[in-house]
Amino acid sequence: MTSLGVVLFALRGQIGANCRDLRRANPAFNLTRDPSSLKNYANPSFADRNKSAAEAKKKLLEKFKNAPKPDEAQLAARRAEREAADKAREARRIERERVKAEEKARKEAELAEKAAAALAAEKAAADALVAEEAAKKAARDERYAARKARKR
Questions:
Q1: Full residue range of the structural domain in which residue 116 is found
Q2: Is the CA virtual torsion 59, 60, 63, 65 positive or negative?
Q3: What are the 10-residue block averages of pLDDT along the chain, 152 residues in total?
Q4: Which of 26, 50, 107, 145 has the CA that lies 20 to 30 A from 66?
């Protein structure tokens, strides 16, 4: 052990003794604590926990019992505010649904128009194809009749 370690080891007992002496010499040192109330707060017993919970419940109940009660005018005003907010919320919901229904109807009408236009285009293409086939058949029949006329 070094000389500093020996000195500290020797002083260790004196430092602890001095603190104990200060506590005993100064009676105001422990005035805030009652020596009999120094319980083990890290591990309170079930009875202690139960008692403190019951006290907390009583204090909370007393707090709510002693709280000022709102009068009828305040309650009526709050109720009217809530009803007005509910009506406004309902009106906004109805408006949203109306706008959504209009948008849906508009989209359906657009789709119907597109489908009708596509159907008309398809029918026109089919009619053009039929007319082209009829023209080809007429030309073929004409060639056939001309060939038969040459043979006779």
A1: 75-151
A2: negative
A3: 54 54 53 53 81 95 87 90 98 98 97 96 96 96 92 82
A4: 50
| Within a domain: 48 | no
DSSP string covering 106-122: HHHHHHHHHHHHHHHHH
Please tell me the distance from the alpha carbon of residue 21 to that of residue 15, in angstroms, as a whole number.
10
Counting the structural domains of the chain, the total is 1
DSSP string, 87-109: HHHHHHHHHHHHHHHHHHHHHHH
What is the 8-class DSSP label of residue 43?
A: S
Tell me the C-alpha distance between 78 and 86, whole Å.
Answer: 12
Looking at the whole model, is its pTM more than 0.90?
A: no
Q: Does 141 reside within a domain?
A: yes
The CA-atom distances, in angstroms, between 81 and each of 68, 84, 85 are: 21, 5, 6
Residue 82 placed within a domain: yes
Per this entry, what is the length of the chain? 152
